[in-house]
Design brief:
The protein has 8 helices and 5 strands; from the N terminus they run βααβααβααβαβα. The protein is α/β, with parallel strands linked by helices and 160 residues long. The protein has a single domain, classed as Rossmann fold (3-Layer(aba) Sandwich), CATH 3.40.50. A 5-stranded parallel β-sheet has the order 3-2-1-4-5, sandwiched between helices. Helix 7 links the parallel strand 4 and strand 5. Helix 1 packs across helix 2 and helix 5 crosses helix 6. The longest helix is centred in the middle third of the chain and has 14 residues. The two termini are 24 Å apart.
């Protein structure tokens, strides 16, 4: 088993990644995005999205809102959060770490969530998710993760 700290490169800028479930909730209810941005300051930050998240959203767009395009979704995220949003491909280190995480957390982590967590760890980015199992795995890895469900359903919000 690899030590996850070997994969992390330090970054100066505040960086966030979004799980697919967060993007889906934003698309289904625009107030969800407003609630997140009320609790998390995204100014001078960057949001990076993995190819895995984009693949999942692309497969779900028709059931959420057939009129939306992926480009419109990215533009909305960038405009509403006032942050730079960019798409980043998986590196070999991300794939290696994803496989290690899947082995280590086989009872609660599944594909492609292992890839989303590995991507977040590799990029030293705070993960925003509403998937309780993914949040639990991130926490057990000592990786910062914001539970957006708690932000949307409690007065103060909470850090996972």
């Amino acid at each position: 088993m690899r030590n996850t700290m070997l994969y992390v490169e330090k970054q100066e800028q505040t960086t966030y990644t979004l799980d697919t479930c967060v993007i889906r909730k934003i698309l289904e209810n625009p107030n969800y995005l407003n609630c997140i941005s009320t609790h998390v300051n995204f100014s001078d930050s960057e949001i990076i999205l993995s190819k895995t998240v984009l693949w999942e959203i692309r497969n779900q767009i028709q059931s959420i809102s057939p009129d939306l395009t992926l480009k419109q979704i990215l533009t909305e995220l960038q405009d509403k959060l006032n942050a730079n949003v960019k798409i980043v491909a998986h590196s070999n280190d991300t794939i290696l770490l994803a496989n290690d995480l899947l082995s280590k957390h086989s009872q609660s982590l599944h594909e492609p969530d292992n890839q989303i967590l590995a991507f977040s760890i590799i990029h030293n980015a705070t993960l925003l998710s509403c998937d309780s199992k993914l949040i639990r795995c991130a926490k057990s890895e000592g990786h910062p993760c914001v539970n957006t469900h708690n932000l949307a359903t409690t007065i103060w919000g909470t850090m996972a």
